[in-house]
Amino acid sequence: MSISAVVIGRNEGARLVACLAALKGKVQPLIYVDSGSTDGSVAAAQQAGAQVVSLDMSQPFTAARARNAGLAALGDQTSFVQLLDGDCVIRDGWLETAQRYLHENPKAAVVCGRRRERHPDASVYNALIDDEWNTPCGPAQACGGDAMMRLAALREVGGYRDQMIAGEEPELCLRLRHKGWQIWRLDAEMTWHDADLTRFGQWWQRCRRAGHAYAEGAALHGRGPDHLWVGETRRALLWGLALPLYTLLSSLFVTHWALALLLLYPVQILRLAARKNLNWAFFTTLGKFAEALGVLQYYVARLMGRKSRLIEYK
Predict the structure, then answer these.
(1) What are the φ/ψ torsions at residue 118 (nearest 5 degrees)?
(2) Rounded distance between C-alpha atoms, residue 298 and residue 26, angstroms
(3) Of 1, 54, 120, 262, whose CB neighbour count within 10 A is largest?
């Protein structure tokens, strides 16, 4: 069975060149979907032999929309498609491993492997992301942006949800699972990822983006049996909004002793640290404030009847 690849990107520069070089000669066709790059990415992709699809940027851009555009360009030329972000490089042997697994397991719609940060020591934020990729192997609820998928299964559920600005992969995987398809994570090296997060503001925006994804996912599927991201949304609102707001109002209008409620944050950090480490616990707790902003962004946009703007962090 043939393998194709759909790569999406926007101003990825040298990272995109490395991504396409690792795929050249291993997939057919190789589709690159560009979302308004101004750094010569389109020319670089053409030089690498990729078929380029340029999104109409007069319409709101999302990664989900870009992936759907790439899938539409494939036609019926392939059975399996490797989805890839332009800041990732495929590892040797992964395509063969994933293809074999999908061929041998006809109920599997999606297979993914180990995604690693290329420079986890470059910043505390890169290290946190590298740890985030380290999820259990076996049957999974969802995949990330890098995965090999069965094209027939994708088309059965209508592909990605175009308008989601984040969290489109778990939402897609949920719909696949509801149709009886399986998602698998293998203990095999899949991709190098280059997050290149070196500033606090980038990390903060990424957390805000996650909060928006939680709220939208919960609005779409929170009442179903999976309760998608209901707990994550509630925790973001509790720790990032309700507790600090209640503490502030209580201290202003009831008693200054209400400020003692802020001690719940170090207690929470210590509780989480027992599960993993202090660094992860601190940033997980701090990130709830950014996530709460993302949740509020989704709710406000929904109340006003408009679509949220893309939250970019690179």
Answers:
(1) -70, -35
(2) 40
(3) 120
pLDDT at 1 over 60: no
Do 142 and 174 touch, CB atoms closer than 8 A?
yes
- Residue 174 has which token pair? 């949920």
Residues contacting residue 90 through CB under 8 Å, at least 6 positions apart: 19, 22, 23, 26, 82, 84, 190, 191
Q: What is the mean pLDDT of residues 139-162?
A: 96
Task: Tell me which of 36-40, 265-269, 290-294 is least confident.
Answer: 36-40
Give the pLDDT confidence of 7-43 residue by residue, as tens digits. Answer: 999 999 899 999 999 999 999 999 999 988 888 899 9
* Two tokens, residue 231: 């707990």
Domain ranges, ordered by start, for the chain:
3-198, 209-303
Domain 3-198 in CATH: superfamily?
Spore Coat Polysaccharide Biosynthesis Protein SpsA; Chain A (3.90.550.10)
Nearest to 40 by CA among 69, 63, 8, 12: 12
The alpha carbon torsion through 158, 161, 162, 166 (nearest 10 deg) reads -150
CA dihedral 154, 158, 162, 165 (to 10 degrees): -50
- Whether the predicted model's global pTM rises above the 0.90 cut: yes
Q: Are strands 3-9 and 30-34 parallel, antiparallel or unpaired?
A: parallel
User: If DSSP codes are grouped into helix, strand and coil, which group holds residue 175?
Assistant: helix
CA angle (44 as vertex; 40, 48 as ends), nearest 5: 170
